[in-house]
Amino acid sequence: MTPETASTKTEPEFSLSNYEVKDEDLPEFRDMKFEKINQLELDHPGASDADYRTRRDHIAGLAKNFRETHRITDVEYTPEEQKVWQIVATRLEEIQAERASSFYLDAKSKLGISTTRIPQLSEMNKRLGELSNFRLAPIEGLVETRAFLSWLSYRTMLCTQYIRHPSRPEYTPEPDIVHEAIGHIPNFTNKDFADFSQFIGHGARMATDEQLEELGRLYWFTVEYGLVEEAGEIKAYGAGLLSSFGELENAFTDNVERRPFDLKRVINTTYDYSDMQPVLYVISSYEYLKETTRKYIESF
Length: 300
Ligand SMILES: [Fe+2]
Prior knowledge:
Largest sheet: 4 strands, mixed
Number of strands: 6
Shape: globular
Number of helices: 13
Oligomer: single chain
Bound molecules: fe (ii) ion
Order of helices and strands: HHHHHEHEHHHEEHHEHEH
């Protein structure tokens, strides 16, 4: 092509869209490149419990199998693990009745997530596929940001299957099945939220390091700690809020500044993951969140 013809050619405007992800469109899970998957940190309540570590390693091993077989293996949870779930899920359900978004509460029951037993990723995955064409894939621990977010581009969320240590049912320093199933998974039944998540994934695949940091903040203040306005009331939809009694209660106290969502401000707000959140952002709707995010990522 000569320089003349090159200069007259008009590039089609980049526009971000959602697409159905068929099984054959998925990258090979076995090719997942994870720089580092977090092992158990020393401050984990189970760090010095050899039995807990063995059990966690076993369940993490099932996630590694998934990468070869593409089949989610159900975990045979022990009575002790079920007990931890029952304690946490029951207590969260009480607070959520008042504080969680009505969409979320509805979705939780649609997915069959109850206080009585730990739900299997396989069953939630099947239901999500039917409701919003979203997928779950087992993972053995916390993954670095770009790798984790990029999978959202394929409408896939990486989820852990093990459960927190029984000594501290109210606390986990890493994602576990409580955080995934009670915090994250119900939100993906919402088409706008699922699309928004996919946009974040598209963004992560092309972001510069600086943009990736911004995306990480957007994710933090929405997917993890988001609030939404519903019929004149503020409700929680973020997974970090919905899966933690402390955070969920704190979010509605005077300790927290609840600001109207402003994307530019959000992507420039830093956070400290080891402490209670002093600032949260309230979206007006999931559709607004999706469309604002679409425009932002189109600007990359
Ligand atoms: Fe999370």
